[in-house]
Amino acid sequence: MKKRNLFSIENKILIPFVSITLVAIAGLFAVFYQMEYKIKLESEGVNAQALVAYINADIDAGGYWKDPAALVKKYEETYRGEDLFIYDRDGTLLFSRRQVSGDELVLQDSSDNRLGWRIVCSMNRQALNNAFIDEQHYVILGALAMLLIIVQFSVLIAYHISSPISELSRLCTRISRVPEHSEDLVREYTRRRDEVGELAAAFQAMMERLRDYTDELSWVKTLNESIVENLPIGVVVWNGRREVIFRNARAEAMLDQTDEVDEQGRDLRTILNEMARKDAVLPTAARLRGADGKWHSYELGAWALRHPDGGDWGNLYTIDDVTYQRHMEEKLSRDEKLAYTGQLAADIAHEARNPLAGIRAGLQVVGRKLADQRDQLLCSEMLREVDRVNLLVENLLNVSRKRESEKTTVALNALSEEMGMLYSKVAENKGVTLSIEIDEDLWVLADEQELRQILINLINNSIKALSNGGRVRLCGRCGEDGVTVMVEDNGPGMDEQKLLRALRGEDGGLGLPIAQRLAEQNGGRLRFETSPGQGTRAILIFHGTGGIHHEV
Q1: Contact assessment for residue 521 and residue 450, using Cβ atoms and an 8 Å cutoff
Q2: Phi, psi of 437 (to 5 degrees)
Q3: What is the pTM (predicted TM-score) of this model?
Q4: Which range has the worst mean pLDDT, 128-137, 197-206, 249-258, 345-354?
């Protein structure tokens, strides 16, 4: 059973009202009691004075002073009260109806008679009070009845005043328990024409405004959450106690990639935790390598969250995957370098073509005067080299603009023999052994000049890498994936960073970037296998654009 609250609104109204009424009635009753008590004492005192005076006169005028025993007998026969006490001259009690108690109220005490007797009228205080209460019992009953009426009236007033408030309180309680039925509950009370109806109508208007405001807040909250959740960057919020209180879906996805680590072996979550622990507010860049060997670049930003009143709400961190942006920046840098190289090549070509034309003309004159067939072949090879240099100049001019490849069937056996004749003397002078292993009748569909340029660049790089001698091997074969042409050496090799710089042309040479671009233009793919101390292997693959030519 639910215990009623002592300090309910009804009791808060009733208790003060009843208390004031009780105090007022008690005060009036006390005043009335004192007045009536005083009147009774005065009345008893007058009666006692008259009785004592009568006895004194009876002794003096009646002749009882001659026969005192007759006087005593007279009052024993005629006096019916209990308040008269007669003492002789010696203080001996001659007459009384009761014993003298310790709580006596003396009303009259006189010895003014011929016998010198002491005549005393006194009352027992307890008996006097009992007699007074017995006389005033109707007054007391009337006061109690009035008190009951006033208490009942107070209860009615208290409950009448508190009823609207209590009902509204119960209405609010029911609405808080069943919010979805608030309109039905309020409508039930708005039909009333009393204060409860007015309160219910006001409460209904307030609820409607509150509901509209809550719906608007909910919409704004949902919109903000949707915006943050669908941001292309990760968002992580830490409170002032360095605890994560929010992460959007993008942040969850990036932080869960624990297989990506930087050069110090830290994953993205560890890097972010270090930023939060140091309370860093400056942007941080991170470069992580995944299990597939690919590098990903991230930018981490930090912002302090401040309360309008100056309090610290914590920090907000953003994680942005800028891998594509970095790739585009590097590509733009390479394009700018190639554009600059093309402009520089245009200036060089203007100065180089005239000397090349003179050298070529001289070689043609000398070649016609040579009798030995080997010397003539060598002179023809030198003419082709001059033409190749001239083609290189043209390629430099075309670095900044794409040239349409003229694809034909290229016999790799003849092209490889040409490469062997061209570089055999150069390799021999550097102590390098050049070997060629090409399947017979192997061909590809490509631009012959561009394919020749690719092989020249790859062989040149391998020979240059063997400063103390070594071995360079040019081989080609036809497999299920297509035609594969490979140039490998046993030189010092390269680490990953050095290879990336070489492919971007950052070490001063454009041979590898040009070879890679020409391979793509001819439908091929150029990749490298290298590591420090293990040499370098350049693998050029043409998928489905060549094979072994079979005689019919």
Answers
A1: yes
A2: -135, 90
A3: 0.38
A4: 345-354
